[in-house]
User: Fold these one by one.
Assistant:
Number 1:
Amino acid sequence: MSRFWVLAPVAVVTVLLIPLDAHAYLDPGTGSYVLQMIIAGLLGAAFAIKMSWFRIRRFITGLFSRNDRND
Amino acid sequence: MTATTDRESRSVDGSFRDPAGFVFESAGRLYRQINRIFAADFDAFVGGGLYQHLVRDQLLIPHTERALGDVVSPAPALAHRIVEPERVGFVSYPYEWCFSQLKDAALATLAIQTIALEHDFSLRDASAFNIQFHRGCATLIDTLSFERYREGEPWVAYRQFCQHFLAPLALAARVDPRLPLLSRPFIDGVPLEIASRALPVSTRWSPSLLIHIHLHARSQRRFAGASMVKKRRVGRTALRGLIDSLTGAVKGLKWEPAGTEWGDYYADTNYSDAARGKKVEAVREFIVRVAPSTVWDLGANTGEFSRIAAERGIATVAFDVDPAAVEKNYRLVRERKETHILPLLMDLTNPSPALGWDHRERASLADRAPADLVLALALIHHLAISNNVPLERVARFFSRLGRALVIEFVPKSDSQVQRLFATRTDVFPHYHRAGFEAAFAPYFDTVDVRLVEGSERTLYLLRRRGESSA
């Protein structure tokens, strides 16, 4: 939740900066495509943070469980 | 959807949109043709291990490849390969699923997309109609749904996923459990604009619902007229982040059935424990006598009588009008890992119609009939009295649904029927045993009749006229 609220303003600014110009044709799912492009950074960052957090947690729990076994 | 019995082959009506291939029936068997246009993607999908991975995880229907010369295709010139998928016992639709069925179908779709990305593939559609409940599991039946992942491309099925799954689930969880029925009129899923308007303001405080429903709806509105937009890269991590966020959104949506409409039915009927045991015994005996391969239990509640059939290995569909009853039944199926019972939501007074293009994309309930045996226990009074359907019409409808029928007649003296008369006058002079028998006689032959000891009810075993005896 908190991570979201930190990143949300970034997303909003990105939305405002997205230029509408003639480069590629998209089908009636245009709005859905655009939203994905807008939120990509936000969701990608959130996912990367989540994965590294999992890795750190696994490392720490691994450390402790090894200690337990040594005890 | 029904099998052809002749030697002709014809495409199945629900599968005409995709140029990559189609489903067809030939000599009563179901096949999927992969067209040449899609050869490279399909061969990579099967050859690269994704197919095997998904089948192993029970997320995709397994198939057997058939030699092109062995099967008569309706369009042989286009054929690259022909496969014969394992057949699904009963084809059901999202508007017939309870909350947890829709949720499991959504999570299966997202799990499939996650695995697909690991194999450098991506789902090119996310239609809820591509998911079926096969041996108790939400399973993708469209083997042609995969295309090779192109780095930087957004998920082409994102809109469809939100409309087919997230929007109806959010509406069910946050507004009313009956709202997923909106996928009946809206065959390509609930429009996000409607979902966004109907959902309470509080859902805007959920980051995932804010993004995938409310902002999504707004973005659709904002770019509705735009034919050109600058394309931006959506990286692989971003795509995984999108799937992760959708998974979180779906998992976060919860609905608890608070007692069922008929929840106290068994505790509050004319049945003593002994009479109840007699009824179970008689129904079991009738089922054994008919020896059906398929049973439809109409008005199944949480599936107590359906399980008499399902536990004998008979493919059983348990229909009920009450979302809470279907939800409870499905949770039992999941908990006990049952593979022969499929609980579904169905209002018999307004059953699923034929839908879509040319009325042929989605089959009506009657189109999917007949079952070998229909159970209609403690149901007749709801149709004949609550819904004013003349008994003769009930008989006619049931004769379209099943080859044999076990039906319970509940007389006016029964307290359950008395309850229906509490607020209305009795305008049913023919609602009695003799009237019931006369109404059913033109459609069914009577095989056996049992008075349920210790109650005022009668159980009939009937066989549709013209059916050979079991």
Note: The interface with chain A takes residues 154-156, 158-159, 162, 207, 211, 215-216, 219-224, 226-235, 237-242, 244-245 of chain B (CB under 8 Å).
Number 2:
Amino acid sequence: MANSNNGPSIYNPFAKLNLRTKTLITIGLSVFILVIVVISSLFINSGDITTNFQAMNKPPSFEHFFGTDWMGRDMFTRTLKGLGLSVQIGAGASILSSLIAIVLSFIGSTNRFLDGVISWLVDLFLSIPHILLIILISISLGGGAFGVTVGVALTHWTSLTRVLRAEIKQIKTSDFVKLSERFGKSKLWIARKHILPLVTTQIIVGTILIFPHAIMHEASVTFLGFGLSPHEPAIGIILSESMKYLATGNWWLALFPGLSLLILVLLFDIAGENIKKILDPTSANE
Amino acid sequence: MKLKATNISFKYPSAKNYLLKDINLELDNKKIMGLIGDSGSGKSTLCKILSGYVQKYEGEVSFDDAPLPKKGFKPVQLIYQHPEKVMNPKWKMKDVLGESWDVDEKTLSEFGIQKSWLTRFPQELSGGELQRFSVLRALNPKTKFIIADEMTTMLDAITQVQILDSVLKLVKERNMGFLLVSHDMDLVDTICDDKIYLKDINNI
Ligand SMILES: Nc1ncnc2c1ncn2[C@@H]1O[C@H](COP(=O)(O)OP(=O)(O)O)[C@@H](O)[C@H]1O
Ligand SMILES: [Mg+2]
């Protein structure tokens, strides 16, 4: 009976199960690919990407999936290494910006004045174009992975801060928090024991969803020459170098690394959105 | 022990008229009191004022001739009608209970709480089972006065009697004060030594 009904009905337990399983499989697959990329990139030693002047400017082939560059380096290996670096910087920036968001939103919840200051800060940071601010911060910190990471982190805490701020406000009006105060519990105790467990979902999802932004911004800032140094095997560096050779018809130099970067970003987005679906408190008990 | 309200007047900011006007009330731990009123007459609001939950009101509430403490454990505890609202959905029941005090096994079984419930989340227990926890939580050894606001309204008759019996036993044992708020006249008559009608003391 239920099996014959193929329509996506929320009353059909099979459809529900399928949806959940589908979501889990999507998360599993995207996380799996991301982990593979990071792990394999860790095994690539930059020194091993040797120049080979016998195989310069080769278009993609079975030997070199992504072709080779003007120094005969295998583009697939370079891209993989670059993606690994992107994920690392993305992780650093996402975690750092989530920490900023957590600290600011909790500070804001302690009193009205600080809350005003923080919401003003959020608006201020949102009104300045990200890329400009990242470049400024990155340059002032001396560039490199550190500068880019901090730059991206300092520009991406705003949305999570907004979410957490609203969420914390709502939790603080709940009866169980008020009762906790009546039991004489301190504000810090309540923040740690009552509020934090209720916002972990938002924190996890928020952190993962910063990843794609972090990776894209890192690549673009590096591409523009304000980010990682040209010695680093970053995607941004690969892309900007490739620009010089595009005119000579070496289309694969930019296409594959660029495409890989897009796919990587997309995977993070898919993983984040699906984890959000799974962890969504409104469907947690189903 | 004395919980005293003097000239209490209160109006919700969104409302036009006063809900409570010049209420005078004195409660102690010698008699189990019942407060009766129609639904919507302001019983819960008065409870919140008496227990220090609502703090912006006219008049004075004093406990043993001193104002209610602003910080620390509140000696006047309120038991709510809806236990699920006063429990963090992410907490196991043993943490919910432990937030207030360490309840010994004897008391647990007296309140009919099964061991296996302690490792569950609030969503995994029925209203009656949750209310046992909510009640027991309010019965912290530091509690001096309990206000039970329609605490058994949503329970069946048997559970209602069970819970009230256990509470009253402990209240007597510890010499606490107890105010039962209800719209159920029969319940108040069976449980309480004396009763007050809200409409008699409310001068609106
Ligand atoms: N937070 C609130 N804001 C505005 N009005 C309220 C609020 N809470 C209760 N009221 C109103 O106050 C009146 C008394 O409510 P309540 O004290 O809960 O009565 P009771 O417990 O006797 O049923 C009701 O008319 C209700 O609509
Ligand atoms: Mg009421």
Note: The domain at 2-201 of chain B is CATH 3.40.50.300 (Rossmann fold).
